[in-house]
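To the wet lab folks,

You asked to see what we're planning to order before we commit. Fair enough. Below is the target structure as tokens, and below that is the sequence we designed to fit it. If anything looks off to you, flag it before the synthesis order goes out.
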């Protein structure tokens, strides 16, 4: 399996594919809504956790509008580039926040945006083992308890970056991928503190700030980069 399929397929994030590794939220909790977005041109999903009293019907209407925006990106003759997907996710997060929804996890391809918390717990973002045999084979998971975005780039070698917004995360992931083995110096130069790199030979490197947030599974042992 190629490293370009680094995150779980199908929704999260973020399993996000990223979407959450086994969410502990009861399926019957009316404050939690998750919807997979079909025909978006790339795996896409929206999950929100509502404040008590927020009208569920209104939330579902907002989610439907976001889903329509994601689908619209796929209507061109070519697949939407990562930067465009990131722009759409950033705009979708802003739309939901303007509607009063402040806790969400949005995924579109290799781009993810997280806002707020999943009730009393952080959002749990699963990172797929690039050499796993099953969609649920996880390399690690991240507890996301702040407003941030995640983007990955690469096929034989995968670079994942966390940044305040999707466009910034995507641009950084692409730049660090192009830097090759010299990525740590570029990351320090740009002030990028949360980076994960899975090399083609399976070696894992992570910046110290991100390494402390990741929970690696099955004995994976990343090298911490300062």
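Sequence we intend to order:
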């Amino acid at each position: 399996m190629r490293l370009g399929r680094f995150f779980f397929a199908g929704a999260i994030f973020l399993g996000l594919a990223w979407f959450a590794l086994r969410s502990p939220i009861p399926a019957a909790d009316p404050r939690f809504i998750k919807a997979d977005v079909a025909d978006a041109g790339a795996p896409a999903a929206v999950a929100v956790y509502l404040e008590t009293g927020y009208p569920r019907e209104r939330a579902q209407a907002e989610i439907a509008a976001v889903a329509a925006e994601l689908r619209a990106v796929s209507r061109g003759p070519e697949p939407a580039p990562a930067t465009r997907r990131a722009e759409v996710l950033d705009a979708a997060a802003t739309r939901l926040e303007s509607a009063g929804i402040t806790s969400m996890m949005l995924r579109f391809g290799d781009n993810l945006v997280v806002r707020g918390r999943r009730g009393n717990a952080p959002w749990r973002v699963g990172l797929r083992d690039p050499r796993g045999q099953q969609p649920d084979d996880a390399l690690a998971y991240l507890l996301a308890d702040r407003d941030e975005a995640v983007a990955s780039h690469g096929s034989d070698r995968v670079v994942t970056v966390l940044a305040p917004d999707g466009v910034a995360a995507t641009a950084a992931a692409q730049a660090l991928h192009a830097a090759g083995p010299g990525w740590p110096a570029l990351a320090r130069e740009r002030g990028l503190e949360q980076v994960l790199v899975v090399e083609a030979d399976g070696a894992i490197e992570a910046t110290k700030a991100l390494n402390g947030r990741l929970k690696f599974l099955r004995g994976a042992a990343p090298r911490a980069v300062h």
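Structural context that might help your review: The CA atoms of residues 50 and 190 lie 35 Å apart. The two ends are 30 Å apart (CA to CA).

Thanks,
Computational group
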